[in-house]
Amino acid sequence: MKAVQETPLHLLLHIFLLFLLPLQATSSQRIQAEALLKWKNSFASSPPSLNSWSLTNLNNLCNWSAIVCNHNTKTVSEIHLANFNITSALTQFNFNKFFDLTHFNVSGNNFSGPIPSAIGNLTKLTTLDLGNNTLEREVPAEMGKLTELHFLSLNNNYLSGTIPYQLDNLKKVQYLLLGGNHLDTPDWSKFSGFPLLSYLDLYGNNLDSEFPEFISECRNLTFLDLSGNLFTGQIPKLVVTNLVKLESLNLTDNRFQGPFPYNFPNINSNITRLR
Protein backbone atom coordinates (compact mmCIF):
# COMPACT_ATOMS: atom_id res chain seq x y z
CA MET A 1 0.00 0.00 0.00
CA LYS A 2 1.36 3.41 -0.93
CA ALA A 3 1.86 5.94 1.84
CA VAL A 4 -0.36 8.99 1.52
CA GLN A 5 1.83 11.91 0.57
CA GLU A 6 1.15 15.39 1.83
CA THR A 7 0.78 17.87 -1.01
CA PRO A 8 1.60 21.55 -0.53
CA LEU A 9 -2.15 22.21 -0.58
CA HIS A 10 -2.70 19.79 2.33
CA LEU A 11 0.09 21.42 4.31
CA LEU A 12 -1.36 24.86 3.73
CA LEU A 13 -4.78 23.64 4.85
CA HIS A 14 -3.34 22.22 8.09
CA ILE A 15 -1.50 25.45 8.81
CA PHE A 16 -4.67 27.43 8.12
CA LEU A 17 -6.73 25.30 10.52
CA LEU A 18 -4.10 25.62 13.24
CA PHE A 19 -4.15 29.36 12.72
CA LEU A 20 -7.93 29.42 13.17
CA LEU A 21 -7.91 27.71 16.59
CA PRO A 22 -6.67 30.69 18.64
CA LEU A 23 -8.91 32.99 16.61
CA GLN A 24 -11.92 30.84 17.47
CA ALA A 25 -11.01 30.91 21.17
CA THR A 26 -10.53 34.69 21.03
CA SER A 27 -13.89 35.09 19.28
CA SER A 28 -15.66 32.97 21.92
CA GLN A 29 -14.01 34.96 24.70
CA ARG A 30 -15.16 38.23 23.21
CA ILE A 31 -18.73 36.96 22.79
CA GLN A 32 -18.78 35.86 26.44
CA ALA A 33 -17.18 39.10 27.64
CA GLU A 34 -19.81 41.13 25.82
CA ALA A 35 -22.58 38.94 27.28
CA LEU A 36 -21.23 39.46 30.80
CA LEU A 37 -21.02 43.22 30.27
CA LYS A 38 -24.61 43.30 29.07
CA TRP A 39 -25.61 41.37 32.20
CA LYS A 40 -23.61 43.72 34.42
CA ASN A 41 -25.39 46.70 32.85
CA SER A 42 -28.68 45.23 34.13
CA PHE A 43 -27.46 45.42 37.75
CA ALA A 44 -29.12 48.18 39.77
CA SER A 45 -25.63 49.18 40.89
CA SER A 46 -22.28 47.74 39.94
CA PRO A 47 -20.10 46.43 42.79
CA PRO A 48 -16.60 47.99 42.79
CA SER A 49 -15.20 44.46 42.83
CA LEU A 50 -16.45 44.07 39.25
CA ASN A 51 -14.50 47.01 37.84
CA SER A 52 -12.46 44.58 35.78
CA TRP A 53 -15.63 43.82 33.80
CA SER A 54 -15.21 46.65 31.29
CA LEU A 55 -15.08 47.44 27.58
CA THR A 56 -11.43 48.38 27.89
CA ASN A 57 -10.70 44.93 29.29
CA LEU A 58 -12.57 42.75 26.79
CA ASN A 59 -9.46 40.84 25.74
CA ASN A 60 -8.56 39.91 29.31
CA LEU A 61 -11.67 37.93 30.23
CA CYS A 62 -9.87 35.15 32.10
CA ASN A 63 -8.45 37.72 34.53
CA TRP A 64 -11.79 39.31 35.34
CA SER A 65 -12.82 39.08 38.98
CA ALA A 66 -15.28 36.28 39.84
CA ILE A 67 -14.43 34.51 36.56
CA VAL A 68 -12.51 31.27 36.03
CA CYS A 69 -11.66 30.03 32.55
CA ASN A 70 -11.18 26.54 31.19
CA HIS A 71 -7.44 25.96 30.82
CA ASN A 72 -7.79 24.46 27.34
CA THR A 73 -10.59 26.42 25.69
CA LYS A 74 -9.90 29.74 27.47
CA THR A 75 -13.66 30.21 27.80
CA VAL A 76 -15.60 30.79 31.03
CA SER A 77 -16.03 27.67 33.16
CA GLU A 78 -16.90 29.22 36.55
CA ILE A 79 -18.80 32.32 37.70
CA HIS A 80 -18.57 33.12 41.42
CA LEU A 81 -20.76 36.07 42.46
CA ALA A 82 -21.92 34.99 45.93
CA ASN A 83 -22.76 37.88 48.28
CA PHE A 84 -21.95 40.66 45.81
CA ASN A 85 -25.08 42.65 46.75
CA ILE A 86 -26.32 42.49 43.16
CA THR A 87 -29.89 43.45 42.30
CA SER A 88 -30.99 42.12 38.93
CA ALA A 89 -32.77 39.20 37.26
CA LEU A 90 -31.47 35.88 35.97
CA THR A 91 -33.47 36.49 32.80
CA GLN A 92 -30.86 39.13 31.96
CA PHE A 93 -28.09 36.50 31.84
CA ASN A 94 -27.53 34.87 28.43
CA PHE A 95 -27.20 31.20 29.39
CA ASN A 96 -26.81 30.25 25.73
CA LYS A 97 -23.32 31.78 25.56
CA PHE A 98 -21.80 29.73 28.39
CA PHE A 99 -22.11 26.04 27.52
CA ASP A 100 -18.81 25.19 29.25
CA LEU A 101 -19.90 26.42 32.69
CA THR A 102 -19.24 23.97 35.51
CA HIS A 103 -19.84 26.34 38.46
CA PHE A 104 -22.50 29.07 38.68
CA ASN A 105 -22.86 30.68 42.10
CA VAL A 106 -24.95 33.83 42.55
CA SER A 107 -26.19 33.10 46.08
CA GLY A 108 -26.78 35.80 48.66
CA ASN A 109 -27.84 38.56 46.26
CA ASN A 110 -31.12 40.13 45.15
CA PHE A 111 -31.84 38.24 41.95
CA SER A 112 -35.59 38.26 41.35
CA GLY A 113 -38.07 36.94 38.82
CA PRO A 114 -38.15 33.40 37.43
CA ILE A 115 -35.37 30.91 36.86
CA PRO A 116 -35.10 30.78 33.04
CA SER A 117 -35.66 27.40 31.42
CA ALA A 118 -32.49 28.06 29.38
CA ILE A 119 -30.53 27.11 32.48
CA GLY A 120 -31.11 23.52 31.36
CA ASN A 121 -28.62 24.12 28.54
CA LEU A 122 -25.71 24.27 31.00
CA THR A 123 -25.29 20.50 30.99
CA LYS A 124 -21.70 20.60 32.27
CA LEU A 125 -22.67 22.24 35.56
CA THR A 126 -21.48 20.46 38.69
CA THR A 127 -22.33 23.30 41.10
CA LEU A 128 -25.42 25.52 40.88
CA ASP A 129 -26.14 27.84 43.79
CA LEU A 130 -29.07 30.25 43.46
CA GLY A 131 -29.86 30.29 47.18
CA ASN A 132 -30.73 33.32 49.30
CA ASN A 133 -32.19 35.51 46.60
CA THR A 134 -35.76 36.59 45.78
CA LEU A 135 -36.44 34.25 42.87
CA GLU A 136 -40.08 33.51 42.10
CA ARG A 137 -42.40 31.17 40.17
CA GLU A 138 -41.81 27.50 39.46
CA VAL A 139 -38.61 25.50 39.40
CA PRO A 140 -38.13 24.78 35.68
CA ALA A 141 -38.37 21.14 34.67
CA GLU A 142 -35.34 21.73 32.45
CA MET A 143 -33.17 21.54 35.56
CA GLY A 144 -33.53 17.78 35.18
CA LYS A 145 -31.10 18.04 32.26
CA LEU A 146 -28.25 19.07 34.58
CA THR A 147 -27.21 15.49 35.19
CA GLU A 148 -23.62 16.34 36.17
CA LEU A 149 -24.72 18.36 39.21
CA HIS A 150 -23.14 17.51 42.55
CA PHE A 151 -24.50 20.58 44.37
CA LEU A 152 -27.87 22.27 43.83
CA SER A 153 -29.17 25.01 46.09
CA LEU A 154 -32.38 26.94 45.53
CA ASN A 155 -33.03 27.54 49.22
CA ASN A 156 -34.49 30.71 50.75
CA ASN A 157 -36.25 32.19 47.75
CA TYR A 158 -39.94 32.64 46.86
CA LEU A 159 -40.22 29.68 44.51
CA SER A 160 -43.65 28.04 44.21
CA GLY A 161 -45.43 25.26 42.36
CA THR A 162 -44.71 21.56 42.61
CA ILE A 163 -41.17 20.24 42.80
CA PRO A 164 -40.49 18.95 39.26
CA TYR A 165 -40.10 15.18 39.14
CA GLN A 166 -37.40 15.70 36.50
CA LEU A 167 -35.00 16.44 39.36
CA ASP A 168 -34.92 12.69 39.89
CA ASN A 169 -32.56 12.60 36.89
CA LEU A 170 -29.82 14.19 39.01
CA LYS A 171 -28.26 10.92 40.10
CA LYS A 172 -24.87 12.50 40.87
CA VAL A 173 -26.23 15.14 43.23
CA GLN A 174 -24.78 15.08 46.74
CA TYR A 175 -26.29 18.28 48.16
CA LEU A 176 -29.90 19.20 47.39
CA LEU A 177 -31.24 22.33 49.10
CA LEU A 178 -34.81 23.38 48.30
CA GLY A 179 -35.81 24.71 51.73
CA GLY A 180 -37.31 28.08 52.60
CA ASN A 181 -39.62 28.42 49.60
CA HIS A 182 -43.33 27.86 48.87
CA LEU A 183 -42.99 24.57 47.01
CA ASP A 184 -45.89 22.14 46.78
CA THR A 185 -45.96 18.35 46.96
CA PRO A 186 -45.04 16.48 43.77
CA ASP A 187 -45.89 12.89 42.92
CA TRP A 188 -43.19 11.32 45.09
CA SER A 189 -43.67 7.97 43.34
CA LYS A 190 -41.77 9.46 40.38
CA PHE A 191 -38.70 9.87 42.58
CA SER A 192 -36.57 6.75 42.87
CA GLY A 193 -33.83 8.06 45.11
CA PHE A 194 -30.43 9.70 44.80
CA PRO A 195 -27.63 7.18 45.39
CA LEU A 196 -24.95 9.78 46.25
CA LEU A 197 -27.12 12.26 48.16
CA SER A 198 -25.72 13.14 51.57
CA TYR A 199 -27.55 16.43 52.35
CA LEU A 200 -31.28 16.97 51.76
CA ASP A 201 -32.99 20.17 52.90
CA LEU A 202 -36.73 20.59 52.24
CA TYR A 203 -37.63 22.67 55.29
CA GLY A 204 -40.22 25.45 55.25
CA ASN A 205 -42.31 24.56 52.22
CA ASN A 206 -45.93 23.47 51.64
CA LEU A 207 -45.26 19.73 51.47
CA ASP A 208 -48.32 17.89 52.79
CA SER A 209 -47.88 14.22 51.92
CA GLU A 210 -46.83 11.26 53.99
CA PHE A 211 -43.10 10.68 54.45
CA PRO A 212 -41.63 10.48 50.90
CA GLU A 213 -40.60 6.88 50.29
CA PHE A 214 -37.67 7.76 48.04
CA ILE A 215 -35.83 9.34 50.98
CA SER A 216 -35.45 5.94 52.60
CA GLU A 217 -33.52 4.83 49.51
CA CYS A 218 -30.98 7.65 49.83
CA ARG A 219 -28.65 5.52 51.90
CA ASN A 220 -25.77 8.02 51.98
CA LEU A 221 -27.79 10.71 53.74
CA THR A 222 -26.04 12.34 56.68
CA PHE A 223 -28.34 15.41 56.92
CA LEU A 224 -32.13 15.48 56.52
CA ASP A 225 -34.37 18.46 57.29
CA LEU A 226 -38.11 18.19 56.60
CA SER A 227 -39.16 20.67 59.30
CA GLY A 228 -41.78 23.37 58.85
CA ASN A 229 -44.00 21.50 56.40
CA LEU A 230 -47.33 19.66 56.60
CA PHE A 231 -46.12 16.07 56.39
CA THR A 232 -48.56 13.55 57.88
CA GLY A 233 -48.74 9.90 58.84
CA GLN A 234 -46.20 7.80 60.66
CA ILE A 235 -42.45 7.99 60.29
CA PRO A 236 -41.52 4.76 58.50
CA LYS A 237 -39.19 2.18 60.01
CA LEU A 238 -36.94 2.44 56.97
CA VAL A 239 -35.75 5.83 58.20
CA VAL A 240 -33.74 4.05 60.87
CA THR A 241 -33.05 0.77 59.15
CA ASN A 242 -31.82 2.25 55.85
CA LEU A 243 -30.41 5.66 56.72
CA VAL A 244 -27.62 4.38 58.91
CA LYS A 245 -25.29 7.30 58.09
CA LEU A 246 -27.64 10.01 59.38
CA GLU A 247 -26.03 12.53 61.71
CA SER A 248 -28.70 15.25 61.71
CA LEU A 249 -32.47 14.69 61.43
CA ASN A 250 -35.09 17.43 61.81
CA LEU A 251 -38.78 16.53 61.47
CA THR A 252 -40.25 19.26 63.70
CA ASP A 253 -43.30 21.40 62.93
CA ASN A 254 -45.14 18.82 60.84
CA ARG A 255 -48.21 16.64 61.38
CA PHE A 256 -46.52 13.29 61.80
CA GLN A 257 -48.39 10.85 64.04
CA GLY A 258 -47.29 8.05 66.30
CA PRO A 259 -43.94 7.53 68.02
CA PHE A 260 -40.56 7.78 66.38
CA PRO A 261 -39.22 4.23 65.95
CA TYR A 262 -36.41 4.56 68.52
CA ASN A 263 -36.29 0.91 69.46
CA PHE A 264 -35.24 -0.52 66.14
CA PRO A 265 -31.86 -2.24 66.35
CA ASN A 266 -30.20 -0.37 63.48
CA ILE A 267 -30.80 3.15 64.74
CA ASN A 268 -27.77 5.21 63.91
CA SER A 269 -25.60 5.92 66.93
CA ASN A 270 -23.92 8.71 64.92
CA ILE A 271 -26.95 11.00 65.09
CA THR A 272 -25.87 14.07 67.04
CA ARG A 273 -28.91 16.20 66.25
CA LEU A 274 -32.43 14.77 66.38
CA ARG A 275 -35.51 16.99 66.39
Automatic annotation (TrEMBL):
In the Enzyme Commission scheme, what number(s) does this protein have?
Answer: 2.7.11.1
Q: Which family does it belong to?
A: Belongs to the polygalacturonase-inhibiting protein family.
Protein keywords: Cell wall, Kinase, Leucine-rich repeat, Membrane, Repeat, Secreted, Serine/threonine-protein kinase, Signal, Transferase
Keyword Repeat assigned: yes
Q: Where is the signal peptide?
A: 1-28
KW Kinase (keyword) present: yes
Q: Enumerate the spans annotated as Leucine-rich repeat-containing N-terminal plant-type domain.
A: 32-70
Task: Enumerate the InterPro entries for this protein.
Answer: Leu-rich_rpt, LRR_dom_sf, LRR_N_plant-typ
What name appears for this protein in its UniProt entry? Answer: Putative non-specific serine/threonine protein kinase
Organism the protein comes from:
Rosa chinensis
The record's annotation in Pfam families points to:
LRR_1, LRR_8, LRRNT_2
